[in-house]
């Protein structure tokens, strides 16, 4: 049994899909006007774990993740620049749809490379908002026909007063909301929370519609694409917690008002990555990309390990020290896996002793994706003298299926690196291990510096050390 925290109900629930053995899942993807920062990427590691959890439990998953390449304003208000238009200005490109597509192509590919570097399974569909304008127009027309939307001089708006359940996701209270409290004041809006379904173009860029050239509202894009690829309702919708108050409540309102059925049955949201200056954003000093980590010598898989040490529903404080500690732990994990695997001398050792531990790990995974407990269990497994080497390897392989840390492949890579280490460096490593055993820390440090000067990194473990070339 899988239990998940459903933002819609505000509690953990047993997961029951619409169709037996099948899961349909929509993930709010990035707005591809810039690189994704590592705070954004927490959301996509989370949904990868969610998908792996379903698949580990035998479900067939259809995962759809949109790429927003039009219509996303710089904030939740209905005023301001479109983010893609802002990218055109930043990069000195002409104000054309072709130039917008060029920018989107570049950052979409960069995002996909980030997913692969983090060992995320690629979604089955990654639709582009700009390819689904017809779906958006269809929903807006239906809302107008039903009297749930109305025109203004700058576009078409959704009338939140016509949807009594508005704000049900996260129990958003609108009763005390005043004009201007959340969005810019617009005298033509009937209610402060009313939002754009179609925005007329202010610079002659856009798509033709029954209401003039313009752009779909950011929220309508997700309604159009999720319905197109998954139908309505579907099983699971995910996003960051910042999507709850506005974006996801708007999706629910317009989709359910248009078609009179739920949009999704389970809504899951990940918490923010927090830096010293607050929530990570694409402006200021806290805009850190995966490429930034790589340039500082951090393996993307070590960042994945760092994320999985904390439950997705809890805020995660970022620091370089914590990330470096996670990288050290991850590399020790890989080295320990390799060491134990090399110790196996007979295949006669039974794997059956691993089954109770694997059952416990599965229970943790199915308990709202308790990855932190599973990470801790890796180390307890290594240290458990009651487990044979075969059982330990089997358990860690199962964990790898759950968490996607790519441990076995990284161990193979490490073994190749070890075999290619020069004998001179191995000799210094051996002398250093002897110095550490004798607690001669001064000599140990001197030998470490020698190894470093030769272009290698040594990492200490409880028994001996591992060594690898510098990145």
Structural account:
The chain has 471 residues and is α/β, with parallel strands linked by helices. A hairpin with a 2-residue loop joins strand 5 and strand 6. The strands form five sheets. The protein has a four-stranded parallel sheet with strand order 4-3-9-10, sandwiched between helices. Strands 5-6-7-8 form a four-stranded antiparallel sheet. A three-stranded mixed sheet has the order 12-11-13, with helices on one face. 44% of the residues are buried. It has 15 helices and 15 strands. Residues 176-183 have low confidence and may be disordered.
List the helices and strands and how they pair.
Blueprint: E1 3-6, E2 11-14, E3 22-27, H1 38-56, E4 60-65, H2 83-90, H3 97-117, H4 133-145, E5 149-152, E6 155-158, E7 195-200, E8 214-216, H5 218-230, E9 234-240, H6 244-259, E10 264-270, E11 273-275, E12 278-279, H7 290-295, H8 300-308, E13 316-317, H9 320-343, H10 355-366, H11 371-383, H12 389-403, H13 407-419, H14 423-437, H15 441-453, E14 456-460, E15 465-469
Parallel strand pairs: 3-4, 3-9, 9-10, 11-13
Antiparallel strand pairs: 1-2, 5-6, 6-7, 7-8, 11-12, 14-15
Helix pairs in contact: 2-3, 4-5, 4-6, 5-6, 8-9, 9-12, 9-13, 10-12, 11-12, 14-15
